[in-house]
Amino acid sequence: MIKTGTNFSFFKNKGRLVLSENALLRYFTFTSLYTAQGIPEGLTFFAIPAWLAMNGKSVAEIGSFNKNEYKKTYSQRGDSRKSSINSEK
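-> structure tokens emitted (89 positions)
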């Protein structure tokens, strides 16, 4: 005997975590992703320059680090938030 229909019962979301059906899961997922995005940015733009300052680097060295990281970050993303830092000749 050949079955002609397909049984899609395994696609039913009984007890599974589905974002479209669980508000708490959506909030947790959004918060996790937002935090994961902010950690590298916080390290790059706040923690590393503070560490450089604590280790005696000059303001010019810290500023050049920030400028270079800013250029790498926003030029790779193709952001429209590019400033005059990216338009150096």
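The longest helix spans residues 23-54.
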